[in-house]
Amino acid sequence: MPVEAIVTLVIAALIIAAAALGLLRVIFHLRAVSKTLGALDGGVQVIVQKTATVPSVVGSVNSSLAPVRAFAESI
To answer: Which end of the chain has the lower number of beta carbons within 10 A, N or C?
Structure first.
């Protein structure tokens, strides 16, 4: 095998190894970002629950205050 062919194969192997190493680093960074986003999403869900509106309670409060409203309208 000529020397040029061996040099070409070695250079190609080095380029492929560098690309593979770069892709592995990207994979590890994406995993870390995925874990961080999972934790962030969990925190956002807690905030959503703690700051939820009260439409389910409003109906029962309005029905409880119906006699007060009727009395106020009669005045």
So the answer is: C
